[in-house]
Amino acid sequence: MVRAQVAAAEVGMPLAREGTGPSACLPGVGRFLAVLAAGCLGGRIGEMGTGVGVGAAWMASAMPADCRLVTVELDPGRVAAARRVSAGEARVEVVQGDAFDELALRAPFDLVFVDGGPSDRVVELLRIGGRLVFDDVTPVEALPADSPYRENDPKREFFFGDSRLVATEVVLPDLRNSLLVGTRVG
To answer: Quick check: 135 and 186 in contact, CB under 8 A?
Structure first.
């Protein structure tokens, strides 16, 4: 984890959500991902939007020895940083490219963490029983009163409107951030 935090600082990715720019995986999100990764016996984990590899480091730290993780990032500088973070970890593959296209070549997955733009096609990457996690969500109660996301949030609409998922929102202990988590049932 220390290498991941150093890499985040080097490329200017804060370890907290600040404004509208990208941030590294929050500690509460990382712990949640580690819990899910620990249950992927003999499985595959995919990540869309590696950043510098903080989320991947959380998952790799807990996943079973027979599990594999592939994480995909578009930005070459972030890819280089993520490869340094995961150096020596043969179970982790850091790929540069379009996340959906690259993960589709390696599907199905037991867990997919989307730390980039949502896609209604991402469910196709999961095996039945596989889990999908989106982060960078603000709980409705923490949104400003005039926020359009109170009534129209594309991430929530996708998660709760897709009949292939059983989904819920998990509010982190800071009460300012949440995750959308779903299990593929169809």
So the answer is: no
* Cα separation, 72 vs 101, whole angstroms: 10
Alpha carbon 160 to chain centroid, angstroms = 18
**Which among 35, 128, 50 has a CA at the least distance from the CA of 85?**
50
**CB contact at 8 A, 128 and 164:** no
- Phi, psi for 156 (deg, rounded to 5): -65, -40
Neighbours of 105 (CB within 10 A): 10
How does pLDDT run across 13-41, given as a tens digit for each residue? Answer: 555 666 555 666 788 999 999 999 999 99
Q: What pTM does this model have?
A: 0.90
**Residue 18 is encoded by which pair of tokens?**
């600040």
Taking 90 as the threshold, does the pLDDT of residue 118 lie above it?
Answer: no
> Cβ(69)–Cβ(45) under 8 Å?
yes
